[in-house]
Amino acid sequence: MSLNSNKISRRGFVAMLTAGAAVMALPKGAFAITTARAKALIDQAAAEINAIISSGKSQAAMNRDFERVLAKYGDVPTMARSALGPTARSASAAQMRSFTQAFQGYLAAKYGKRFGEFQGGQIDVRDARPLKSFYEVRATARLRGQSPFAVSFMVSDRSGKDLFFDMVIEGISLLKSERTEIGGMLDKRGGNLDAVIRDLQAVS
């Protein structure tokens, strides 16, 4: 073997070591999520949502239960940063913690009321499919006396565990609608994030 061939081999060996180290350094769970796992996550979430819907509890009590489901199965930090948009980059760590917690309660109250309208109905998970770097889990919401409609959950393990980071109801993305909503709140308050946090806390 020639000296030049040895150099190439050494370069190739070093390249392989570097690539291996890079893979080992990826966050736990990276590339590990599968269609089956994404569907299993939403199967569990839907089962808990259905149990809340049929519980007969007051709306306030259901909202608290919905918040627990959201915290358990949803990537709330990612949702919060997306909803806040460019303001998230200038927010302090303390502000982001406060906003994320307030946003979680706000989402639970807002969508809890919507799910509360499902009493007597349920959410049936149908299937899952890969979309780019995440998975879409498709479900059908069935309400008494109304036509069924589509609900989809977008699932990723980018946070280090399998969680949903967006929900699409009748073609409307939660993330997109909340980005518009929070952006409007910021505009009305002159960009004052602390004021928005206080308002979200009042809603939840």
Give a quick rundown of the structure.
The protein has helices at residues 3-24, 35-53, 59-73, 76-84, 87-90, 93-116, 174-188, 193-203, and strands at residues 122-131, 134-142, 149-156, 163-169, 172-173. The protein contains eight helices and five strands, in the order ααααααβββββαα. Residues 1-31 have low confidence and may be disordered.
Describe the overall structure:
The chain is α+β, with helices and mostly antiparallel strands and 204 residues long. It folds into 2 domains: 1-27; 35-203, Nuclear Transport Factor 2, Chain: A, CATH 3.10.450.710. Helices cover 58% and strands 18% of the residues. The protein has helices at residues 3-24, 35-53, 59-73, 76-84, 87-90, 93-116, 174-188, 193-203, and strands at residues 122-131, 134-142, 149-156, 163-169, 172-173. Helix 2 (35-53) packs antiparallel against helix 3, helix 3 (59-73) packs across helix 6 (93-116) and helix 6 runs parallel beside helix 8. The radius of gyration is 22 Å and the shape is globular.
